[in-house]
Amino acid sequence: MATLRELKSRIGSVASSEKITGAMKMISSAKMHKAEGALRRLKPYRQQVETIISSMLSSDATFSSPLLEQREVKRMTLVVWGSDDGLCGAYNVNLAKRVVEELDLLSEQYPGVAVRIVAIGTKICKACRRVAGERAEVVAAPADVTSKSEGETVGRYVHELTESFTTGETDRIEAMYMNYQSASRQRPERVTLLPIDQSNFSGEGLRKDVPYIIEPDAETVVRRGLPMYLHSVVEDIFTENRASEQAARVMAMQSANDNAKKLQEQLNLEYNKLRQEAITTELLDIIGGQAK
To answer: Which domains does the chain have, with CATH numbers?
Structure first.
């Protein structure tokens, strides 16, 4: 049985842990709200780029782009976004499980395809290596690309992905990440990055009878617009991944905080019982001594 001193020490340790998890929850919550704000700011830009491409597709202009090229899929790249840091619950484990499911689907859809997984985040990289086995080659993202990357780093990585597709190094590039829906809900999602699917630009809400003046020409606008669209999609994925990771960490820290409170209550109860027993024993000793 633990002594009063041991119990008091354990209660102090649990109280400290409760304060730490509470502080980490507040920090993660602030980072999550920051990522939410970034998502809101990205949305108008992406919508505008999509509108431009939709306008092009709804016009009678002729154009082509290597980013639209559909070819037989023999080599595929699956880019998986996860976390570099821990303490985010089952965030990376859930993603890794979904990766296994997607590998099975891809092998059925593209028989004999060679899949290469590029993991963005040290934790998800380790998780993917554990579950992928011989079904796919798992490599880490370039050293300068992390789950927290933004701005110019994202732009450089998009360029690298585009180069690998246009040079024929890979025939298709898919993205797997946690789609951020709310602070309490995130779900794994797979989207195609390259080749860009023209069905993504349905042009809904645009008038088909409006004549468009395209300057300098349709080919130039499309060749510049599609990379901008691809960059906006990848930037959006990076931001959603950051928001989802922090949301998962908030939930994990909340769970740890709740467990610490329950443990502290149990320890306090045990401490009070033991202290009461000690007091009762002392009183009995005193009464017994007086009786003698």
So the answer is: 64-201+225-249 (3.40.1380.10)
Structure tokens at 42: 């990205």
124 Cβ partners below 8 Å, 6+ apart? 80, 81, 82, 83, 92, 95, 96
| CA of residue 27 relative to chain centroid, distance | 17
- Among positive and negative, which fits the CA dihedral 130, 170, 198, 201? positive
pLDDT tens-digit readout, 64-118: 889 989 999 999 999 999 999 988 988 999 999 999 999 999 989 999 999 999 9
Q: Which of 21, 81, 59 is nearest to 212 (CA)?
A: 59
The structure's pTM equals 0.85
- Reported as a single tens digit per residue, the pLDDT across 152-202 is 999 999 999 999 999 999 999 999 999 998 888 899 999 999 998 877 775
